[in-house]
Design a protein that fits this description.
The chain is an alpha+beta fold. It is 39% helix and 22% strand. The chain has a 5-stranded antiparallel beta sheet, with no helix packed on it. The longest helix has 11 residues.
């Protein structure tokens, strides 16, 4: 979301008009309007003051992927991986460069960090020591297929891992 959109959204959450915000900042209503429409950008000291008035962080106003408190927002990929972590999933890959075929058997995503996932390839469900653990670049993963809940409920815990 752009600075102008974030500014307008935060201003409306505080129930302020452009004119009221302008008055608090010591600028004209037209200046606020230009910032929100991105015809112009505010000076640094105005951004700091706006963040205080609107009760958001400067990082939120200036950066993508940051919430109103300045904390990083999890990307859709991160949220999906958190949901998949520790569960049996089927991964398909864009390329065979990761040492795995493009379509692959069931895996368990053990851990992930940054652009990498620690994946256990389930080779033999009854002999976990035969399973293989690999570090896979997330950019190589094309799809993640989840085992349906009702299907997982019918299987024994040994079958799932």
């Amino acid at each position: 979301m752009s600075l102008g959109n974030k500014l307008a959204e935060a201003r409306k959450k505080q129930n302020l008009t452009q004119e009221q915000l302008a008055e608090k900042l010591g600028v004209t209503r037209q200046a606020v309007s230009r910032w929100e429409s991105e015809a112009a950008y505010p000076e640094t000291d105005k951004i700091v003051r706006m963040a205080q008035i609107l009760q958001v962080s400067c990082d939120y106003l200036l950066q993508d992927g940051v919430d109103e408190k300045g904390q990083p927002v999890a990307s859709p990929v991160t949220r999906l991986l958190k949901q998949a972590q520790g569960k049996r999933v089927k991964l398909t890959f864009y390329e065979e460069d990761v040492g795995m075929p493009v379509v692959h058997e069931w895996c368990v995503i053990r851990d992930f960090d940054g652009g990498w996932a620690n994946v256990e390839v389930v080779r033999n469900q009854k002999k976990p020591d035969k399973n293989e653990v690999r570090l896979i670049p997330l950019s190589a993963i094309s799809t993640i297929t989840f085992l349906k809940d009702e299907e997982a409920a019918r299987r024994s815990p040994l079958e799932l891992y």
